[in-house]
């Protein structure tokens, strides 16, 4: 099953990352991207929901940090459970899985390293809504707000990691950069650490 391989997604907004900082996502633009991907053109309530969730994420300083090794591993596993095995997962994991799927599409549409945080966060939230509905919505026990916050937070961390550079293969775009950064985390660390990092890079490599 291919959740989220929607033809409705179109990139094109210029990259807002500049000089080691970034322009915080704009609620209206994020909502526009989310609704475009979610294929929801009429529900203004969703715009309010996306804006409210984004405000909570931006008030949490963690969104300005790159993705941690453990977070990348958990998100990759959640993505596999949802998109490969079609299993139900927690609201938080559903959001992380949606963000990873969004990053896959975002990187594909911006292979030259462009693209804005508005695009990626909006795409992640729209993808999360698709998963939410696919798995039965609130009736499934999923927490919509928690799921969307998780998707937005993970998307921001992926964006910050991508834009901070890295030693990955430039031909593989943002994924390659993230793989390179993950591989360099923690300095030395010996064979066990290298094997762990290699495993994470392998999981992320599935998105290429």
UniProtKB/TrEMBL annotation:
Biased composition (Polar residues): 1-17
Location of the region described as Disordered in the Swiss-Prot/TrEMBL record: 1-47, 186-208
Stated name of the protein: DUF7721 domain-containing protein
Gene: PARPA_08877.1 scaffold 35132
Domain DUF7721 residues, every copy: 26-109
Domain of life: Eukaryota
InterPro entries, per database record: DUF7721
């Amino acid at each position: 099953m291919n959740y989220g391989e929607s033809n409705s997604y179109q990139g094109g907004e210029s990259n807002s990352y500049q000089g080691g900082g970034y322009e915080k996502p704009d609620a209206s633009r994020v909502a526009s991207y989310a609704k475009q991907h979610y294929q929801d053109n009429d529900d203004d309530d969703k715009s309010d929901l996306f804006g409210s969730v984004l405000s909570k994420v931006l008030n949490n300083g963690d969104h300005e940090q790159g993705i941690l090794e453990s977070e990348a591993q958990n998100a990759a596993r959640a993505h596999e459970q949802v998109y490969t095995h079609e299993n139900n997962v927690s609201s938080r994991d559903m959001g992380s899985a949606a963000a990873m799927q969004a990053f896959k599409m975002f990187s594909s549409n911006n292979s030259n390293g462009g693209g804005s945080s508005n695009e990626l966060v909006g795409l992640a939230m729209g993808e999360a809504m698709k998963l939410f509905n696919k798995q039965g919505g609130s009736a499934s026990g999923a927490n919509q707000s928690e799921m969307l916050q998780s998707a937005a937070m993970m998307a921001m961390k992926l964006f910050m990691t991508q834009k901070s550079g890295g030693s990955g293969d430039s031909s593989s775009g943002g994924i390659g950069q993230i793989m390179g950064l993950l591989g360099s985390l923690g300095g030395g660390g010996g064979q066990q650490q290298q094997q762990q990092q290699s495993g994470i890079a392998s999981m992320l490599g599935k998105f290429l």
